[in-house]
């Protein structure tokens, strides 16, 4: 089900915004409880002692008002007790205990001592059960796991009968509700494309309630004179009027990637780019941001453990921006050639 908390937590970039809006209060240290933490083995004493030795003020902890349970900040609370502090600064969260748990998981992958893979996996299992309508990508953003890993966990839980209530649609990170069987969405995309043939992929996707990649697939199929619904993989559905339709198959295996170095060198030699101010500006922008295959290998071990998941999230955000840039360019190219 769609709820206000899902809307607030739907996108990774909304996390800091949500936390910053929580009211701050001074709470007695002894009034707080340490229950229901995503950490399987409790707090790390060494990390707690390190925090206790810091003279600068630490960020406020986050507390669930209804239960006075610490959602985020167990080590900061422990440090306050070591120092003998009587009160601690806390941001107060209003919401259900299920929502508080999700917020706690998200907080512990965004900063501080990161959760282990086992802890994030256990948290993901719980969130899949408590929020079955959340998409794999939405849960992935909250747990620091990949969407593929979440999908695997969900299928394992479903085979064991522990994936929560059955749903027919899921809420994506953009807050939109999409059916698991997107036959209806594809048919809406067909109607919209026929009525608005010059519409962009984003516009088609928004009006049909499908992803931009699905909108592109539908448009390409129509241009080739094919059925907008792909062949069946495992089940069938029906078009209004009785004709059989099929569920969307998984994406085909990716095609081999062209060599990045060759593509960049080709762009560098292109006269329209090489001999114009705007072209040289574009080349500088591209070369500063392009990453070659496995170029990042040597950087992995240099990343401090407590920064790993934040940097991973930065990488995902950059990848998403590149994907949107690519789709816009492809759309522009298709429009010019039409």
UniProtKB/TrEMBL annotation:
SMART domains in the record: ParB
Source domain of life: Bacteria
Domain ParB-like N-terminal, residue spans: 25-109
Renumbered residue ranges of the record's region Disordered: 207-257
Compositional bias of kind Basic and acidic residues: 216-227
Record-linked SUPFAM superfamilies: ParB/Sulfiredoxin (SSF110849)
Positions of transmembrane segments: none
Identification of the protein by name: ParB-like nuclease domain-containing protein
């Amino acid at each position: 089900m769609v709820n206000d908390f899902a809307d607030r937590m739907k996108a990774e970039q909304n996390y800091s915004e949500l936390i910053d809006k929580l009211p701050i209060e001074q709470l007695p240290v002894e009034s707080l409880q340490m229950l229901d933490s995503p950490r399987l083995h409790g707090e790390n004493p060494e990390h707690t002692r390190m925090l206790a030795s810091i003279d600068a003020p630490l960020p406020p902890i986050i507390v669930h008002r209804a239960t006075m349970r610490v959602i985020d900040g167990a080590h900061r609370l422990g440090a306050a007790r070591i120092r003998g502090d009587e009160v601690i600064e806390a941001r107060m969260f209003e919401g259900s205990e299920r929502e508080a748990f999700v917020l706690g998981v998200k907080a512990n992958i965004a900063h501080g001592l990161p959760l282990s893979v086992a802890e994030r996996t256990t948290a993901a299992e719980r969130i899949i059960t408590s929020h079955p309508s959340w998409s794999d990508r939405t849960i992935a953003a909250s747990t620091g796991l990949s969407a593929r890993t979440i999908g695997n966990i969900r299928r394992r839980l479903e085979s064991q009968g522990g994936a929560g209530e059955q749903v027919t649609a899921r809420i994506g990170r953009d807050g939109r509700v999409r059916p698991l069987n997107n036959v209806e969405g594809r048919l809406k995309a067909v109607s919209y494309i026929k009525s608005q043939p010059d519409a962009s992929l984003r516009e088609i996707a928004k009006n049909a309630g499908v992803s931009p990649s699905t909108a592109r697939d539908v448009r390409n199929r129509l241009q080739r004179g094919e059925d907008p619904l792909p062949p069946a993989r495992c089940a069938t559905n029906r078009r209004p009027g009785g004709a059989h339709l099929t569920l969307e198959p998984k994406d085909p295996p990716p095609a081999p990637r062209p060599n990045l170095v060759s593509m960049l060198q080709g762009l560098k030699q292109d006269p329209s780019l090489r001999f114009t101010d705007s072209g040289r500006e574009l080349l500088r922008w591209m070369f500063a941001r392009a990453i070659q295959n496995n170029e990042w290998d040597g950087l992995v071990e240099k990343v401090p453990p407590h920064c790993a998941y934040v940097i991973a999230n930065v990488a995902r955000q950059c990848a998403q921006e590149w994907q949107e840039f690519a789709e816009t360019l492809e759309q522009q190219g298709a429009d010019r050639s039409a």
